[in-house]
Amino acid sequence: MQQEEKERRQIPGWLLLEEDYIPVTERDSFLEKTMRAILSVLAKMKAEKEYIGKNKTAPSLRIAGAVFVIVLLSLSRNLAFAGLVSVLLLVRLAFCNGRQIKSVLKGAIGAVLFSAVILVPAAILGHPHTFIYITLKVFLSVTLLGILSNTLPWNEITSGLKSFHLPDIFIFTLDLTMHYIMQLGEICYQMLFALRTRMIGKSPKKAGALTGILGVTFLKSKELSQETYDAMVCRGFDGTYPLRKRKASPAANICYGIGLLLITVLFFYLEHVSAG
Question: What are the sequence ranges of the domains in the chain?
């Protein structure tokens, strides 16, 4: 019995063998890019909370003002007005941080390149003024929308849309979509990170693993939607979507309104001068 117990306690020989296993290196560029893209979106959405309360102007007024200035830009026929808007946007960008400026300019430059490719025939056929003017309008309009989206959190955007008497189901769908994009993005990032840490060497079944991540995300979204529906039924949701509005400063609203009024006056003056 003692001999058998001693043999049982001995370490097997195969455990004492040395192994020089060197895994084949592989560049997981797809995983790296996907993780960076998801992380950048999540960081942007989480960073929006930092700007709540810093701007005291009513969100509805800011949204209406941005749309109004874009309409004036589309109607203007004078480069001086576009130059005026450019100066105002440059001053506004000066108060943004580096991440916001990068995000705004990235979207604006992409829109300008797209519009420039479309308008190349106009420049070739002898209409360079049209080419320059339209691309400038596109750049300013996209920059204005980029500033608005990067400095106004999503909950305040939906609150501002509520002021325009949009249907509750539209606002509710938009708000719920943004919430679950962030939640499902975190789930995708966690699974991608787990896949990367468990991957040793070269994996021949990488496509299958990524397909599995998409499948799990789909099942999780279905589960979350069912839980949301059950919670709405339990709370007696009747289709009304109330939003808590942040108190805006009357002085800030008045100053913003005066600024829009001055822009309107300058628009009509410059249009009159150019027509004369």
Answer: 28-48+167-245, 58-152
